[in-house]
Specification:
Blueprint lengths: L8 H13 L2 H4 L1 E12 L5 E6 L4 E6 L1 H4 L11 E11 L4 E11 L4 H16 L17 E5 L4 H13 L5 E5 L7 H13 L6 E6 L13 H9 L4 E5 L7 H5 L2 E2 L3 H8 L3 H34 L3 H47 L2 H6 L4 E4 L4 E2 L11 E5 L4 E5 L8 H4 L7
Parallel strand pairs: 3-5, 6-7, 6-8, 8-9, 9-10
Antiparallel strand pairs: 1-2, 1-4, 2-3, 4-5, 11-12, 11-13, 13-14
């Protein structure tokens, strides 16, 4: 009787994994393909598929490895991957564990340069309207470069030759290597904290793309864009172009050219000043001569006749003003008369004499020297004076009555 051994799924998967892990070809293999289904997990790991015309291969690149990438993988990108093939036991799938990844047909540095350039351009960091103008004559010039490089010596030599005595402030920084981007950013921050720096030059001498890579990093580009002080980029030779050249306020082909752009030539300025001074003196001389000629021309004229004409003109103007003033006074006087008549009419209507002329009378108590407005003010036997419009009546009070027929009947009505 043959005894059959039955394997579990895990045993079969482990066996296959041991086979793949023990294969020297699959432990360090290079694979070329096109990226598909790319996904970067929140953990930082990258998952994607490499495919060609005939097949596909699942791939994973852990965060510890992909953090070294200079470019961002995207779907459709052709790449070359190095890694090991093994089995992921939980899903029972074999996949390539990627250790290195580079673009196929173009260098990773150049691809990273193109990707960063496109992203920063889309954000507007290269826009012309964001560029700050350079000062005509800076008080002090800040320089970010290595104090041991040829660029520093060239910058100092050219600026000393063009404008001796202009202050130069060096913010030293490494210009290549892993520490260079951080040091360049720090140097820019230090110079921006000062109030006496009017322009900054960031640069170094020529080199390969790898040597110039610090000036193609995102942190340096954003530090230059954020600088409140105008920045001139002077990296490499005339044919070298970096991200800092695009984001800076001005690009100089070489460090020496940057010094010429930032600092004017003192000798040329002095020549211009002398030329302007001569032009000013000539203009003043012409002005003086023209005024002198004018004085001579006026002195040769009949000044008495001119003064008489001037006096006659002023007299005529004075007469016209006098006529206008008199006319205005007459108009105001007529207006005042009309207003006085109107007010007099209103006062006449309110006069007590006018009331008496309408048939009314006033009762006057001569002893108390007051008007009698109520029956309670007099009593029988009192002597009062009734004032009329054409005279007065002396009357003796014989009786004081309460009420009056005038209130109920009105004047002239019979009971």
């Amino acid at each position: 009787m043959v005894v059959r051994r039955i394997y579990s799924v895990g045993e079969v998967t482990s066996y296959l994994r041991n086979l793949l892990d023990g294969d020297p070809l699959l432990s360090n293999i290079w694979v070329r393909g096109e990226i598909s289904n790319f996904k970067k997990h929140t953990s930082g790991h990258m998952y994607f598929v490499l495919k060609d015309d005939s097949s596909c291969l699942r791939c994973v690149m852990f965060r510890s490895r992909n953090s070294q990438l200079l470019f961002v993988p995207t779907n459709g990108m052709r790449v070359i991957a190095r890694g090991s093939v093994s089995v992921y036991e939980r899903d029972g799938l074999y996949q390539l564990y990627v250790e290195e990844l580079s673009p196929d047909g173009v260098g990773s540095l150049y691809l990273a340069y193109c990707q960063l350039k496109a992203r920063l351009q889309a954000e507007g960091l290269f826009a012309a309207e964001k560029k700050k103008p350079l000062p005509f004559l800076p008080r002090k010039v800040g320089i970010v470069t290595s104090p041991n490089g040829a660029a520093w010596r060239d910058l100092v030599s050219v600026m000393r030759r063009r404008f001796p005595g202009i202050p130069i402030v060096l913010a030293p920084a490494a210009v290549q290597g892993e520490q260079a981007p951080e040091q360049i950013v720090k140097a820019l921050e230090i110079l921006n904290q000062r109030s006496d720096i009017d322009v900054i030059i960031v640069g170094r001498g020529g080199g390969s793309l790898e040597e110039l890579w610090a000036f193609n990093t995102e942190e340096v580009a954003r530090a230059i864009f954020a600088s409140r002080i105008p920045v001139v980029s002077a990296v490499g030779h005339e044919t070298d172009f970096t991200i800092t050249d695009l984001v800076a306020d001005l690009r100089a082909p070489t460090p020496s050219a940057a010094a010429e752009l930032v600092v004017p030539c003192r000798a040329e300025l002095e020549r211009k000043v002398r030329s302007l001074q001569n032009r000013l003196l000539q203009a003043l001389d012409r002005y003086y001569r023209s005024k002198q000629l004018r004085v001579k021309q006026v002195a040769g004229r009949n000044m008495v006749g001119l003064l008489q004409n001037l006096i006659a003109a002023h007299k005529q103007e004075l007469r016209l003003c006098s006529l206008r003033l008199l006319q205005r006074i007459r108009i105001l006087r007529e207006n005042w008369r009309s207003q006085v008549k109107l007010l007099a009419g209103k006062l006449d209507l309110l006069s007590p004499l006018t009331v008496l002329e309408r048939g009314y009378s006033l009762c006057w108590d001569p002893q108390k020297e007051q008007l009698v407005r109520s029956r309670k003010q007099v009593q029988k036997g009192d002597l009062i004076e009734v004032i009329l419009s054409d005279g007065s009546l002396e009357c003796l009070i014989e009786e004081v009555k309460e009420g009056s027929r005038w209130k109920s009947k009105g004047p002239g009505l019979k009971k």
